Structures are given as C-alpha cells and as structure tokens.
Amino acid sequence: MSTLVDYDDAVTRYDTVIGIEVHVELGTVTKMFDGAPAGFGEEPNTSVTPVSLGLPGSLPVVNGKAVEYAIRIGLALNCSIAETCRFARKNYFYPDVPKNFQTSQYDEPIAYEGWVDVELDDGSIFRVEIERAHMEEDAGKNTHIGGSDGRIHGAEYSLVDYNRAGIPLVEIVTKPITGAGARAPEVARAYVQTLRDLFRALEVSEARMERGNVRADVNVSIRPTPNSPLGTRTETKNVNSFRSVERAVRYEVSRQAGVLDDGIAIIQETRHWHEDTGTTASGRVKSDAEDYRYFPEPDLVPIAPDRAWVEEIRAGLPELPAARRRRLQGEWGYADAEMRDVVNAGAVELIETTIAAGASPAAARKWWMGELARTAKQQEIELAELPVTPTQVGQLQKLVDDGRINDKLARQVLEGVLAGEGDPETVLVARGLEVVSDDGPLLEAIDAALAAQPDIAEKIRSGNLGPVGAIIGAVMKATRGQADAGRVRELLLERIGS
Amino acid sequence: MSTLSRDEVARVAGLARIDLTPAELDRLAGELDVIVESVARVSEIATPDVPATSHPLPLTNVFRPDVLVEPVDRDLVLAAAPEHIDGKFAVPQILGEDA
User: Fold this and answer.
1) A492 pLDDT band (50/70/90 cuts)?
2) How many structural domains comprise chain B?
3) CATH label of the domain that carries residue B27
4) Which residue in A153, A395, A404, B95 has a CA-CA distance of 20 to 30 Å to A479?
C-alpha cells in the first residue's frame, strides 16, 4: 500500500477536483409516495404502509408538498425547473429497499443547471455550479450485528427497519468543482454548510446533520496541473458532518497523491468514511453491479410543474441566508471579522432575538460572544443549547441599561439564570444583587472606610487624590460590589470637600 | 440476424438475480431476440414528426395531499418476515456496509 503524502506537499504537485452529492430529507409530514409518517425516532417498522414495504399490488402516489419543496430548493439554487419530468426505477438488490428498486429521477430531474455562492472562512466567495437536483425516496436503515452476539444460529446478520424507506429526499449534484486548489477541503465543507443553512431558511427540512437529515457523498480526484484531463475519482459515501467533509477531502488528496507517486493508477471505487480514524477505506469497485437498469416508473405519471405555480413558489421564497447575513451586518454595524465570528458561532438568530428583546447590537454581541461563548466552550455545547434564552439576555442587559446592576453584578445574575434560578429579575431579587443607589448607605460606607484608613483619608484631604481608589475599593467591598463606583467617587469627593 | 447474444442474456439474468441453465440461455436468447426485433421495427415506423410516448396515460401532476394515513400494525408487518428480531426484519449479513 502506498504511503500518505503530507497534504501541503500533495497540493504543490497535484490539482484537486471535487464533486459533491448532498441528500436532504424533506420535512414533509408523510413519505414521498404514501401517507406513512415521515418522522424520526419511532419504534422500528411502525411508520410503514404497503407502499413503503413494496407489497404486491400497492401503488405509489406523489406527495405534492414534496414536489413543492423540491422546486423551492431548485429555485434557491438558481436552477431551471423542468417543464416536465418523471420518476425512474433504479434497480438493485439490497435489503434496505424492499421493492428491489429505489424510485428516483434519472434522465429528467426536476431542477437543473444552477449555482450557489459559498462564503469561505476569510469572507471570500466561491461559486459552486449545480448540475441537477432530483427527487427520490430514502432507503430503510440496516444495522449490522456481529457474529459474537448473533442470534441467528450464531451467524452474522443484519436487521432492517423500513421507517425511513420512502421518506422524500432531494439529491443535489454539483458539476466538477475546479479552481479551488489547496482550498478544496474548505470549499467542500463550506458548500455543505451553505446548503444546510439554505434548507433551514427555506423550511424544507430541519436539516439536522446528527440525525442524518443531510448526508454528503464526496467525489475527489487529483491531476498534475489544472490543465490536465480529470483524474480518476473516488466517491466517499455518507460523510455526515461538516468537519468530516473537510477531512475526507484532505485524506483522499493525501492518499491519491501517494498512489500516483508510486506510479499506480487510482481505482474508480466507492469508499467508506471512518470518523474515528479520519480515513477512508475501499468499498465496492464500480462494476457490473453498478448497472442499475434505470427505466421510467410505470406506476407514476410525469410531473409538469405549471409555470404559474413555479413563479408563485419563487415569489414566496424567504430571504436567503447570505442576503440575510449581509442585511443584518449592515443593521448591526458589525465589522466583517466580527460578523464572521458570530456566524461561525451559530449566534446570528440568538443575537437577532436578543436585539429584538431590547438590547443594543453591541451589547447583544458582547454577551453571546463573550461570557456565554466561554461558558458554552467550557461545557462543550453549542450556544443555542445553553439554558438561557435570547429574551433573558435582553432582560439582563435592560437591568444594566437602567442602572439597576453593573456589569459585574450582571455576570452574577447571568450565572443564576444559567443555574436555572429563573429570569434575570427573579435572580436579582432572590440573590439581592441590586445596585445600592440610595446615597445613605453609601455615605455610611464611605465614612467607615475613611475612619478605617486615617492616613489615606489624610492624604486625600490634603489634596492628594492618588489613593481615592483604595477608599472606593473598600466601599465596593463593603457593599459586596453592589455600588455604582462612579457614584461612590462623586460622594467621596463631596465628603472630603465639605 | 441475431441482435441479442447469449452472453447478454446471461448478463441481464445475472443482474436480475435469475439463475438460468445453459439450455435456458440458449432458448431465451432466441425467444428474446424475436421480441427485441419486433420492438426495433417500431423505430422504422416512427419519424421525427411523431412525438415519443413516454407514458401510456395522458395525465400529469397526480399528487396527493401531505396527509397521514394509518400505518400498518407492526405485528402484521413482521408476519411477512421469515425472521425478525426486536421489531426489525432479520436478513442474512450484508457485507461491507453500514447504511
């Protein structure tokens, strides 16, 4: 076996071309071709009908909502929507499809020839050309049981759950992505991330990677120079996180460079991604078994989306993520780098809601990207998973703005909110954290501090204001930080002046 | 003139998981050839001004609303399985993949 070539070395000698297929499960209530529930997490084989099981005599009927969602995706990807298209049978023998074929689209996809702009980490834009987006159904889920605990005569076997079989999918296929060079892994990751954001904005899918709502197949090939003919590609299947997409491309580039360096040809094959080791391993070699003998699905009639309907869907498209980010950045007055950090931290919605709850853009950003980001990082969770709502952060900032607490007390209040002690107001009252705004107690504390440190008091009285900090500090300590330091200074100077 | 070879019949049978004896291959190559040739004659008649028929029904856009129907009871579903374990269909080991 050839050795891996260091990535940085590999990209000096080879040009990378990638192609990505993304499958997204649509968030319809029912499946693509029957009324069985398309949800997640049900007991095995309870979300099935005769159609999902492919029982003889059962007939599919297309879910109109799924077609609408597919068109929405196509339009958002700047694709043309087919005047007419149809479904086809993709024939193969595998227990995850009970019919022995997957109903898909082959030569007539619903959407084709589009593009999407992808924002990279440094803020630059990379345009990815879309070949097609087509409709199909998901397959069932297989679980492989090893021989050691096998219960069928001690043999190894697999278990199949058909709940997922028939859930509507849209598969989006890029054209070969060239010109990314050494940044191909980053482009691949940013592209999948862009699609995920798009699916959510379009409200066509919850698009949760960890549930497999969005799955990517990553094609990678390398060639000596950008002008060389395309190299032989491999397809790494089911790469299901943004980070893995990036790693899978990097790994394949290093691996293929090693193979080519040894003068060996790349084998066109399917490879499997191993999350734990960050490597790919050889799967099926593309061969006769890949002959799916597609033919038009005789049980379904063609789909010819009415142009008026397509335009109605287009008019109803929401503001897309990239445009929305640009608008919000303008409204909030964040610098490019600040906005990128906010986006990368997944804090856009949180900050937007916090601002809607009354906080200034600067204050909202300060909380979410400061104290809360640190807390989330410590606990190794996402910002949105913290037990505090944007509304509560807005309330917290209002307490600061109203002068009822200072920043230091605000952090203590936030701590209480995160500990589940209630809204900021509740925590403030329960913990007795309100700023002492009554001058009486402050003057008492000032007098006590002056009396306790007579030498310092004398210096101040003689006009040396250098050590006032010591007295203010003592007052702050006496009031457990609940005094407004500025007010204490004013009162102290008045006191001494008098 | 034969258009369908014995090898092609063997290959298609393999893809469809149909086990054919050498005698069956010989016979079917001949029989299928008659069918293929008959279909091929259509292209002699079809001219560019005759639109292709992609579907026998003059219908498009037959959709159903996104409304739930009652799923089949699982006991009934699994009654069709030769073997089942923990509510799932048990099948011979699937090699090399975890889907």
Assistant:
1) confident
2) 1
3) 1.10.20
4) A395
